[in-house]
Batch of 3 targets.
Target 1
Amino acid sequence: MIALAETRNVTMRFGSFAAVDSVDLSVGVGEVVGLLGANGAGKTTVIRLLLGLVRPSQGEVSLFGAPPSMATRRRIGYVPQTLGLYDDLTVQENWTFTASAFDSTRIALPPSISDARDRLVGTLPLGLQRRVAFAVAFSHQPELLVLDEPTSGVGPLSRARLWQDIRDSAEHGTGVLVTTHNMEEAEQCDRLAVMAGGHVVAEGTVAEVIGDRHVVEARCDSWQDAFSVLDAEGLIVQVQGDVLRVPASPQHVEEVLTRHHLRADVATVPANLEEAFVSIVSAGALR
């Protein structure tokens, strides 16, 4: 697979602190790669390294087979967490500015944002602002999209529309690197890289990241009481309807519930992505 963007054994230190430590990552043609991790895991630093905004303390970074440069960055569409738009310019003015900066021949606004052409970006709802930011980032038909939390703070409909745009772009050959905290969004990625403490601690498809991890499902008459005692025991408990899911051994769950005179039907089931993520990040934090 051709790597549009790649880091090889990259470390980024700020003084004695390693924000990114020995990270290998790549994004190929038509591939959507999700970068997952808690705040402070190193995701945004990886993006800044790929864009050439900071230089690594060690290791190599490449865009389209060359070190990051003005020429390679022209082939990228980038949406930062702050969106990268000018609030005091209209949608049309933001679009025209970007087209001029990238010497783009795409003059007409896309239909998805044309109704807002004369409105100041700062007055738009956040969902529409993010749609404008995505359209502007794609206005010069980039070969690689880099999206840092592109759906943060938007509603389900706007999120679905943005992800449809992402998938449509990938189907036309654009590589996509996207950071997200949303597990439903992560499941739409072709590959995932999970970061914790500056390291990539797991990578692969959703199925590969989950692996053979399992959790315990507990069904009981009083799930509220069961939740309280399991939570007090320090276990991580998720509630799905009236079913509790716990990343622990069935023997431990049964012992805790029995000790509090609670009866439950306990079974071991495959973990979902969110449960695998919590397990991976918790283990990564102990490295």
Target 2
Amino acid sequence: MVICRFAFRNKVHFGVLNHNNQVLIIENPFKVNGEVVELNHPPLDLSEVRLLAPTVPSKIVAVGLNYFDHAKELNMEVPDEPIIFLKPPTSVIGPEEKIVLPSQSQRVDYEAELAIVIGKEARFVPIEKARDYILGYTCSNDVTARDLQEKDIQWTRAKSFDTFAPLGPWIVTDIEPDNLKIELFLNSELRQSSSSHNLIFDSYQLVSFISEIMKLNPGDVIMTGTPPGVGALKPGDVVEVKIEKIGVLKNYVTNSFSVQEIGD
């Protein structure tokens, strides 16, 4: 099942995408424990709506150094436990939106990642039960001000700028997360390519581990880490995260907010 969030006639809805590229409006799935409750509304063509980030998380928990091939690329030891950090919900943007490069940074990088979307409240979840708390998966880009990350040592500023958490284009619920091809294209050139098979800590391990630290709310996102090949963004770039069985998350890169965006 493909669940999306979209704008139509100045209203925001959740929907299910069918095989005819039509959207059926549903109840907010995060308010009904991940269930899909269809509303009485005629189907909409996908071309009629504007896709938004598929969730509005209360928090984004991201994982660092979680690919064997990325650790090898950096000549770093494989961690014994997941390395986690937070990105604020204000950093979220959706498909086709702009990543804005902040004036404080001279080096901003892309990081393609598989993202887990939580479907119901999760606390102290055993690994074998983790699947029950996951609504589905989406594409994400853990945009990072690399120079500030190195300067600050801790990562909050580097990871938290507005627009630094693109998500989308939708949530896919009925896939297995352990062997998905993950790619990133910069201006149509392949820059990252790996598989979730190379994750050091898989999706179920991450849900369990994080839920032992903090409560995960419906709609929360876990960014599972990036494969090798991260690199810099510049104004005018087009960056696309492509994940097998999910789709493509496309964003544009600029160095300034529009007047309307500043007003928002």
Target 3
Amino acid sequence: MFALAVSIGILSYTLMGLGLLGILLNKAILIVTLIFLSTSPLWFPSPNLGEGTKRRGIFLYAILIIQILVNLVGALGPELGFDALWYHTTVPKIWLTNQKITFLWGDLYYSGLPKLIDMLYVYPGSQLIHFSFGILTLLVIYKMARKYLNSTYSLLACIIFYSNLVVGWQSITAYIDLGRTFFEILALYLFVEKKYFQTAVILGLAISTKILALGSLVIFGFLGFPIIYFLISIIIPLPWLLFNYLNTGNPVYPIFSSYPIDWNFSINILRLADPINPIYVMVTPLIPPLKLRGGQGVILIYCILSFVIWFLTPHSGGGRFLMPYLPAWSILTAILIQKNKFFITMAIVLAIVSLGYRGIANAKYIPYLLGVQTKQEFLNKYLYDRFR
């Protein structure tokens, strides 16, 4: 999985290089893509999510597959996400049209921030690209959970994560947060494995995806991450920070400029604009009596620190800014409830409720996917009418 993450990073930075050289041409992109795909057999061994043969394991596996399919329906539909239409897909498409990367002033002032995932949106199917990072995140969750749980409860950890309404929403739109989420949980997994160099590289890719991932360096610092590796994590996003600095005089522009920041410390975690699974709050009474050691203890401390970091950062993103840490929260939750029938039942019930909610929300895409409704008719009904 580390090889896959690095390959994605190399692909993105290669596309950036083409853009800075003014040769972001379709032919050049095709050549780079073919080279990227030719290395695919070396990327990662795929975990067998269906290895549990018990009835409960099959039931959980079925829930997960249905969750994925429901989100896929939305990912195949037209884009409705505000930020996706504002700049996540617009900026790379402008660069592709101009065949070069330049700083875009005006309403596209985010164009100088790190764009590791955004650069992939020069390809068609940007929603499916972002959707795929949700699937990759599930694979890492399962792989990490298997260090402490059997296959059934590892599947439950995946379901708890994928049951978050914010994850369901992000899975159908071309934002970047699922990309960061994939890098964040992979970094934690590598850290638990004591692969510190690889951890530093992946953290660098997370920062190159979203600048807020700098907060994760603080978390890993408290966990005992060797200081010498911090430099690696900072060097990786440096090309984007330098690009931003040369164009604006501020490496993280528009942050620390006239950019409005929401420092609302009275925010309620159960009433976020982008809701998360309430199971995380429900199981907190199970934490004090539990003595977690080794990797499990690291996960617990990581979860606590991640909440602190999220709480101290701007809350304009609501649950979306918390999402990168939810994989670890999901694994910890599965560890806590593995012998508690009540909480196991609650986790499954909440998953089914979430599935129903997302199913209803994504049902609007079905007429379009079946050809009953044109794209223009769909957008007139669900997008343009919102701004009239």
